[in-house]
Amino acid sequence: KYPYSHRASTRWHCKPNRRLFSLTRLQHTKSDAFEVLAESYEFNEIEGRCLAFRRAASVLKSLPWAVQRLEATQDLPCLGGHTKAVIQEILQYGRSFEVEKILSNERYQTLKLFTSVFGVGVKTAEKWYRRGLRSFRDILAEPSIHLTRMQQFGFLHYGDISRAVSEAEARALGNIIDEAVRAITPDAVLALTGGFRRGKEFGHDVDYLLTTPELGKEEALLLSVIDRLKHQSILLYCDYQASTLDMDQLPCRRFEAMDHFAKCFLILRLEAGQVEGDLQRVEGDSRSWRAVRVDLVSPPIDHYAFALLGWSGSRQFERDLRRFARLERKMLLDNHALYDLTKKEFLEAKTEKDIFAHLGLEYIEPWQRNA
Ligand code: DCP
Ligand code: MG
């Protein structure tokens, strides 16, 4: 059942960090008990349980009150028996033994470390773990391991890109991208997406959508922007993926990890002087710049609204919205389009509001989508 229709829905999406549910926050690891459980299932490739814990964490995070007794969670959606048992344990003992066991597990710790590298997914991390590798030093010293270019740059800039990006840094990057885009196509459409559009104060990267009012010119714009960043000597790494969009292949009936728009995953060099205040840095770091991960996505203008909604996240919000579309409206929603299975037609949208209207939902602002 669509969780937004629940009575608690007025508080479902809180402004980030304002009313964080503190019960499951593990102070010593700065993580969330349910996030640890979800991750542990993810590492064991048990997707259903992983998603169940992510959804439960979202429900708890949205509460305007702290849970003091298990009974208080009785009418909340998406909380299964396992989740309730963990809540009960934390209420009773102030800790979860199951979570502590996971945190001290060598496999969990190693996979967590390895997947924190740009370009390393669970499968690769698992492969390295099975070969007996336990640290970055082990990996880099192993001659038979062939790192992809993305992983090489992930290791090279690990210190910088594993550190959070601040709002001020995201703004500074926004100015750089904006300047590059306008110099090429003055009337281009550019939008900040991802966590920063939802009002988050920190993120792991900065995400932008850019396109041209004229259909078919968007990919050339993206390539020119990349070229310009290269000439400005701020492009440290670029993984460009050309568009594979084919309307005949839509709607996608199975879940796909990535959409088909032209895009690039970048590492950019950001100078301290460009940032209001200062760079996010670790103590003792006196460099005048840092590396930041940036994603640029370039959908054709007629898919822009869907891409904007999809890339604004959060991931959990997108999952729930798609599920709602499918189960309650018999419609397929993804980053490209909305397809009505009953009428057997694509529904057009120029704005996010049009998409919400097609779904029969009240429009909600990006900052309310922090599920
Ligand atoms: N997204 C998507 N498909 C992907 C990757 C991302 O639809 N394969 C969407 C959902 C995300 C948004 O794009 O919310 C941005 O992705 P990020 O991984 O950058 O996530 P956030 O910006 O929300 O969080 P962070 O602060 O970690 O960057
Ligand atoms: Mg992001």
UniProtKB/TrEMBL annotation:
Cell location:
Nucleus
> From which domain of life does this come?
Eukaryota
Q: Does the keyword Nucleotidyltransferase apply?
A: yes
Q: Which GO terms describe its molecular function?
A: DNA binding; DNA nucleotidylexotransferase activity; DNA-directed DNA polymerase activity; metal ion binding
Q: Where does Mg(2+) bind?
A: D205, D207, D295
Question: Its catalytic activity?
Answer: DNA(n) + a 2'-deoxyribonucleoside 5'-triphosphate = DNA(n+1) + diphosphate
GO biological process annotation, one example: double-strand break repair via nonhomologous end joining
Identify the GO cellular component terms for this protein: nucleus
Name where it mostly resides. Answer: nucleus
Q: What is its EC number?
A: 2.7.7.7
Sorted keywords for this record are: Magnesium, Metal-binding, Nucleotidyltransferase, Nucleus, Transferase
Please tell me whether the keyword Metal-binding is annotated for this protein.
yes
Cofactor(s), names only, from the UniProt record: Mg(2+)
Q: What does this protein do?
A: Gap-filling polymerase involved in repair of DNA double-strand breaks by non-homologous end joining (NHEJ).
Q: Which family does it belong to?
A: Belongs to the DNA polymerase type-X family.
Name by which UniProt lists this protein: DNA-directed DNA/RNA polymerase mu
- Source organism (scientific name): Myripristis murdjan
Q: Which gene is this protein's source?
A: DNTT
Query: Shown portion of the whole protein?
Result: 133 to 503 of 503
